[in-house]
């Protein structure tokens, strides 16, 4: 293995090891999620801005994943509709509230929403958590302190208030994004390569799924889990979850 690939491996291994060292945070958030799922509701999840959307996509219709996950995949922050466009929209005040309106989220107190943004400073991330609080929702943040604490308060990527996502949510899980995101040095290149944010988000959110399933079992509830539709019997195994959750999960049908 060449030194650059080894550097990438080591950086991810370090981040993953740090993520695992917060069992109480995972368990607390998972218990809140298990409660609403046991009551027949879903957990909302949004990745407010560009590649953060992958965290929401990661738990939608995912083999081994919970069926009770309502991924918010707004076109404005999805890269397929324009990468630079997402950067502009994630910095637009007021946009997050309209997205929650469009998805009919926060219509009753106690709904749970996961906000996954490894940087945790952009306008949409902060507006989402502040709007969710207004709607008396329970907020879980998957984000990193390493980045948020080092970006200047007046940086244009920040919410006008200068707030950090990890300080505003009810439950915070650190995804330990290394500062700068990219972590590998290439001789002759002034810029680093090999980004880490999507992998840190995905690893964190999947641990949260594990802990939520365990919390459901403790409550005497069989976790509603998807089987791979590519396996023999997959379509049949998933039919009950489809019937229950298609009316509740916007992008499932």
Description:
Helix content is 43%, strand content 9%. With 253 residues, it is α/β, with parallel strands linked by helices. It has a single domain (3-224), classed as Glucose-6-phosphate isomerase like protein, domain 1 (Rossmann fold, 3-Layer(aba) Sandwich), CATH 3.40.50.10490. A 5-stranded parallel beta sheet has the order 2-1-3-4-5, sandwiched between helices. Helix 1 runs parallel beside helix 9 and helix 2 crosses helix 9 (197-218). The longest helix has 22 residues, at 197-218.
Could you tell me the strand content as a percent range? 5-15%
Average pLDDT value? 96
For the largest beta-sheet, the strand count, sense and barrel status come to: 5 strands, parallel
Name the helix and strand elements from N-terminus to C-terminus, one letter apiece.
Answer: HHEHEHHEHEHHEHH
> How much helix is in the residues?
40-55%
User: From the 3D coordinates, which CATH architecture would you assign?
Assistant: 3-Layer(aba) Sandwich
Number of strands: 5
Q: Could you name the CATH topology? A: Rossmann fold
- The total count of helices amounts to 10
Low-pLDDT ranges: none
* Corresponding CATH superfamily: Glucose-6-phosphate isomerase like protein, domain 1
Q: Could you give a quick summary of the protein structure above?
A:
With 253 residues, the protein is of the alpha/beta class.
Give the helix/strand layout.
Layout: H1 3-20, H2 23-38, E1 43-46, H3 53-58, E2 69-72, H4 83-89, H5 95-102, E3 112-116, H6 123-134, E4 138-143, H7 145-148, H8 165-168, E5 171-174, H9 197-218, H10 234-245
């Amino acid at each position: 293995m060449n030194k650059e690939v080894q550097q990438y491996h080591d950086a991810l291994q370090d981040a993953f090891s740090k993520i695992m060292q917060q069992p109480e945070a995972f368990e607390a958030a998972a218990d809140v999620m298990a409660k609403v799922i046991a009551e027949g509701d879903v957990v909302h999840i949004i990745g407010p801005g560009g590649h953060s959307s992958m965290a929401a996509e990661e738990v939608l219709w995912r083999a081994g994943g919970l069926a009770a996950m309502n991924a918010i995949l707004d076109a404005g922050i999805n890269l397929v509709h324009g990468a630079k466009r997402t950067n502009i929209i994630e910095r637009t005040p007021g946009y997050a509230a309209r997205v929650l309106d469009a998805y009919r989220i926060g219509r009753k107190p106690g709904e749970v929403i996961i906000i996954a943004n490894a940087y945790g400073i952009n306008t949409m991330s902060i507006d989402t958590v502040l709007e969710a609080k207004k709607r008396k929702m329970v907020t879980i943040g998957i984000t990193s302190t390493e980045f948020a604490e080092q970006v200047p308060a007046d940086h244009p990527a920040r919410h006008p208030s200068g707030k950090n996502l990890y300080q505003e949510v009810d439950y915070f899980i650190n995804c330990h994004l290394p500062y700068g995101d990219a972590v590998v040095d290439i001789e002759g290149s002034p810029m680093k390569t090999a980004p880490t944010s999507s992998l840190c988000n995905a690893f964190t959110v999947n641990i949260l799924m594990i802990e939520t399933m365990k919390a459901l079992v403790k409550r005497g509830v069989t976790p509603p889990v998807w089987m791979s539709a590519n396996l023999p019997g997959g379509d049949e195994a998933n039919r009950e979850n489809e019937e229950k959750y298609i009316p509740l999960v916007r992008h499932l049908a």
